[in-house]
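Long-time lurker, first post.

We've been arguing in lab meeting about whether flavin-adenine dinucleotide would sit comfortably in this protein at all. Half the group thinks yes, half thinks no, and nobody has a model to point at. So I'm putting the question to the forum: if I give you the sequence and the SMILES, can you give me back a predicted structure of the complex? Inputs are below. Any interpretation is welcome too.
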Amino acid sequence: MSATPSVWGAATIAEIVPRTARVTSFILAPETPFAFRAGQHVDVRLTAPDGYQARRSYSIASAPEAPDTIELAIERLENGEVSQFFHEVAAIGDAIELRGPIGGHFVWSVDDGGPLLLIGAGSGAAPLMAMIRHRTARGSLEPTLLILASRTWDDALFRDELIALHDRRDGFDLVLATSRDRPRRPGDHGRRIDAAMAAEALGRLPRPPAHVFVCGSNAFVETATDALLADGVAASIIRTERYGG
Ligand SMILES: Cc1cc2nc3c(=O)[nH]c(=O)nc-3n(C[C@H](O)[C@H](O)[C@H](O)COP(=O)(O)OP(=O)(O)OC[C@H]3O[C@@H](n4cnc5c(N)ncnc54)[C@H](O)[C@@H]3O)c2cc1C
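Top reply:
Settle the argument with this. Predicted structure of the protein with flavin-adenine dinucleotide, as tokens:
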């Protein structure tokens, strides 16, 4: 069933899964499940007793193949109105308002082919995770490389699931880049993303990428995109999603 994106619907918090010290996943069960594509997001609307409303966008981190629930991986921001609500107030069984799916640009399906280069930082891993889970659910062997930037090893969102997928050696490669931690795996980096790191990642793909997706804060997206352009990646194949900050 497909919901009209402009229509708000109810969803129940079915599960709450802490992922890292700063990011927790909220598994939502929409009253009317809707089909979506990997990379799309939803809008969430909170209404206070006095009628005040706050609305924010959150990427869907789960695969389209399981549409009855959607996973939102929400990072706690200091003094963040909506993210603090989720981390401190929201409980299993609570109802929230949801609108979606939204977005037709930052999306990928196995039918679009590859190779795929994904670059994310912090909670910016969420829509890239939906693409990777979709690839796995569909049994795709499309060459795919994810550079996941985080402060520390423990801040790397979905780290253990991603390492397990990397270890299947089915064409998915994970590179972790930790800005405040030492690299732990061969091929990982203990620094921020730069042109040399992007060039090395490009060299690990069997062919140049057909699609590149970059997601994170404004500053991160700028830096990663500059690195890709410096390495000769065509701007026309780079798609970005900016979370603010
Ligand atoms: C398409 C889209 C998808 C998104 N998906 C996700 C997601 O999957 N997970 C997620 O955690 N967030 C995601 N965001 C960001 C989210 O919409 C909110 O902006 C974020 O949760 C902050 O809202 P808040 O009410 O907690 O903070 P606010 O009260 O709005 O802001 C608090 C302070 O934090 C600053 N700020 C806002 N966003 C950021 C940021 N990303 N990094 C650093 N500082 C920031 C603001 O400038 C402000 O000073 C997405 C944004 C977009 C546009």
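For your lab meeting: The radius of gyration is 18 Å. The chain is about 20% helix and 30% strand. Whichever side wins, do check it experimentally.
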